[in-house]
Amino acid sequence: MDKDSLTRYLRPRYGLSWIGLGFMRLMSWLPLPLIAVLGGGLGMLLYALHAPRRHIVHVNIRRCFPERTPAEQTRIARRHFRAFGQTLLDIGVSWWASESRLRRITRFRGREHFDSALRDKKNIILLAPHFLGLDIGGIRISADRPIVSVFRHPVNKLFAAVVYRARTRFGAHLVEHNKPFTTLVRMVRSGMPLYYLPDQDAGRRNSVFAPFFGIPAATFVVLPRLAEMTNAVVIPCLTRQLYWGRGYEIEFRPALKDFPSGDPVADTTRMNKEIEIAVREKPEQYFWLHKRFKTRPNGEPDFY
After folding, report:
1. Could you tell me the residue range of the domain that residue 103 belongs to?
2. How many structural domains are present in the chain?
3. Is 61 a domain residue?
4. What pLDDT does residue 5 have?
5. pLDDT at 81
6. Is position 151 within any domain?
7. How far is CA 180 from CA 151, 218, 284, in A?
8. What is the DSSP string of 194-262?
9. Taking a C-beta distance cutoff of 8 angstroms, is the pair 286, 129 a contact?
10. With the C-alpha atoms ordered 210, 212, 217, 220, is the resulting torsion angle positive or negative?
11. Mean pLDDT by 10 residues, the chain (304 residues)
């Protein structure tokens, strides 16, 4: 933040926020293996003490993996909290690490799918579901070329300013979530890849019920609309933690063929299926703390 921004937030109401940011900044200087150990411990503490979130995770995993035994479901939940604890502690790395450090701690897989689309001058939408490495993946990609993403401001204005600066420091562009489509469409048409996060339950507005792990889930129909309006290819992009603090892997998968099809429900169903395939590979790293099935079809009881 510049000096003027700093002065704006030097008020007592932001005291605890500054302490929290200071702690995150200190953590960002630690090596990733140590952060992984500390974060794993923090995650298990949260698992033990935060009963409401533990309940949400267990409900999600039980619903999505009914074929697993109760012991296996619990193991996934506990591993998820350990991975989430690490994510909490290494947020500072994604926000403040130098470009050279980000390059050292990340590696690419399937990069040819992204590079070939860039070479062919295609408009690109990166389908980036909510894996725990999502933030660091977007920032790392932006270090190679400008990208655009949708931004929802945190309620805390100091945190909002810090997050905005962190995510744009290598040239990324952030568009407010409540801005008209035209802004995103114009930027993607200009050749700027869109890092798009499609998989949270935001209610019935602009959503359809599409199956996710066989469960009707309120899902945005925005992706096929954006792909059609921008004539963009959609490339799945997954960022996952490597075990024991060995960094992060950003995986690009082949572009979705014949997408969009012209049927928004079929396209949204296909999108959810692509995400489900990726989640099944490393289920503990998906963001299960979110109430993914909060909105239910009429007449269905609340899952949570």
Report:
1. 3-285
2. 1
3. yes
4. 62
5. 98
6. yes
7. 13, 21, 35
8. EEE---S---STTEEEEEETTEEEEEE-HHHHHHHHHTEEEEEEEEEEPGGG--EEEEE-PPPTT---S
9. yes
10. negative
11. 63 87 94 96 97 97 97 97 96 95 97 97 96 95 95 85 92 86 92 93 85 94 94 97 95 96 94 97 96 92 92
In a domain, 134, yes or no: yes
> The domain that contains 65 carries what CATH number?
3.40.1130
The pLDDT value recorded for residue 6 is: 61
Which two structure tokens, joined as six digits, stand for 192? 């700027």
In degrees and rounded to multiples of 5, residue 206 shows phi and psi of: 60, 25
Cβ(140)–Cβ(295) under 8 Å?
no
Question: What whole-number distance in Å separates Cα of residue 271 and Cα of residue 127?
Answer: 9
Give a yes or no: residue 18 inside a domain: yes
Give the position of tokens 């929290």.
20
Q: Residue with structure tokens 């700027």?
A: 192
Nearest Cα to Cα of residue 66 among 279, 213, 218 = 213
